[in-house]
């Protein structure tokens, strides 16, 4: 079976195949009745060892709209709390004959560990600081659709200037976006305070900045990240007020980006710290500056439908994938 553990190493045609697959589900999800019973009879387990709103709900909705039986396991109310190990938990889920398992875990690599122990496809819903592949895909889909709405159909990502700003060190969202967007030909700039910039990030073919205004010059997409205070391990982090001053996306600062720049944030947001409310809620005409944050959530459901469908029903389309 094939898994979706990360976007590192996927080829452009593999990424574009998944984006193309998602388009049909965007259309279905906009209909009054949102059912396609393609996965009827299959069981999908969402095993979440870390909190989530968007990812958990959208995987659940995605599985249900495709007709699968979806069950959620929350670590906080499971036998993990009684000390059951990750491997024993994986073997337990496997014995229930799931047809796909979706996992979120606080440790980088935990999802691969589980994938090696079970007989069905495993989808990474975010593992530690490693990857959040469906987020990278849904962000790419969101960008592609926004640019297509402006009539830019050819080579959408080629040379596109994207800034990813915030807690790059702890961000699996940043890593998956970097892999997807650089593979598709975008020019990715990452911006963070020195303590939150991983060493050697340039090896991922990105340009690193500590000065947000410099990073923003000419940017067509500005992706803000949450300051992940729960993952800090002694790093020096500016106070919230200082952080906003240096790295917060204010309306004024957005003016330094390209005209019509698109604003993104994977959520959950710290409003007033990494992004101001009047930027997060910016409703612009096509071609004008606009926030795509709620569109990202909408694309999340469609993208997860595509991933579940491809991994379970169209597995042969993924021959050779990770
Ligand atoms: N973007 C994202 O992963 O959000 P959740 O943590 O709410 O799933």
Describe how the helices and strands are arranged.
Blueprint: H1 12-29, E1 43-48, H2 54-65, E2 69-74, H3 86-95, E3 100-105, H4 110-115, E4 122-127, H5 133-149, E5 161-165, H6 172-183, E6 187-191, E7 207-209, H7 212-216, E8 221-224, H8 240-247, H9 251-254, E9 262-264, H10 277-280, E10 290-291, H11 293-312
Parallel strand pairs: 1-2, 1-3, 3-4, 5-6, 5-8, 6-7, 8-9, 9-10
Explain the overall architecture.
The chain is 36% helix and 14% strand. With 322 residues, the chain is of the alpha/beta class. The strands form two sheets. A six-stranded parallel β-sheet has the order 7-6-5-8-9-10. A four-stranded parallel β-sheet has the order 2-1-3-4. α10 links the parallel β9 and β10 (290-291). α1 packs across α5 (133-149), α2 crosses α11 and α5 packs across α6 (172-183). It is globular and about 55 Å long. Residues 52-55, 126, 135, 266-268 line the site of phosphoric acid mono(formamide)ester. It catalyses: carbamoyl phosphate + L-aspartate = N-carbamoyl-L-aspartate + phosphate + H(+). Belongs to the aspartate/ornithine carbamoyltransferase superfamily. ATCase family.
């Amino acid at each position: 079976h094939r898994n979706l553990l990360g976007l590192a190493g996927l080829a452009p045609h593999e990424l574009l195949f998944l984006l193309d697959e998602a388009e049909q589900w965007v259309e279905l999800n906009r209909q009054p009745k949102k059912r396609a019973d393609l996965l009827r009879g299959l069981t999908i387990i969402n095993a979440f060892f870390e909190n989530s709103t968007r990812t958990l709900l959208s995987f659940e909705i995605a599985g249900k709209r495709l007709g699968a039986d979806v069950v959620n396991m929350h670590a906080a109310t499971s036998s993990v709390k009684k000390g059951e190990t990750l491997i024993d938990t994986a073997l337990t889920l496997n014995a229930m004959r799931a047809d796909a398992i979706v996992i979120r875990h606080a440790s980088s690599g935990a999802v691969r560990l589980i994938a090696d122990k079970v007989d069905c496809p495993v989808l990474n819903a975010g593992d530690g600081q490693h990857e959040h592949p469906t987020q990278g895909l849904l962000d790419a889909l969101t960008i592609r659709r926004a640019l297509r709405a402006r009539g830019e159909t050819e080579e959408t990502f080629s040379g596109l200037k994207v800034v990813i700003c915030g807690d790059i060190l702890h961000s699996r969202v940043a890593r998956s976006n970097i892999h997807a967007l650089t593979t598709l030909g975008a020019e990715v700039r990452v911006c963070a305070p020195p303590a939150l910039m991983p060493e050697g990030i340039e090896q991922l073919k990105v340009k690193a900045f500590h000065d947000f205004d410099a990073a923003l010059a000419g940017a067509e997409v500005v992706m803000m990240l949450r300051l992940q205070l729960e993952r800090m391990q002694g790093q020096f982090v500016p106070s919230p007020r200082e952080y906003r001053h240096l790295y917060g996306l204010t309306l004024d600062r957005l003016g330094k980006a390209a005209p019509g720049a698109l604003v993104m944030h994977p959520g959950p947001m710290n409003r007033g710290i990494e992004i101001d409310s009047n930027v997060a809620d910016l409703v612009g005409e096509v071609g004008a500056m606009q926030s795509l944050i709620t569109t990202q959530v909408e694309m999340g459901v469609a993208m997860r439908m595509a991933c579940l469908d491809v991994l379970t029903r169209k597995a042969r389309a993924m021959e050779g994938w990770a």
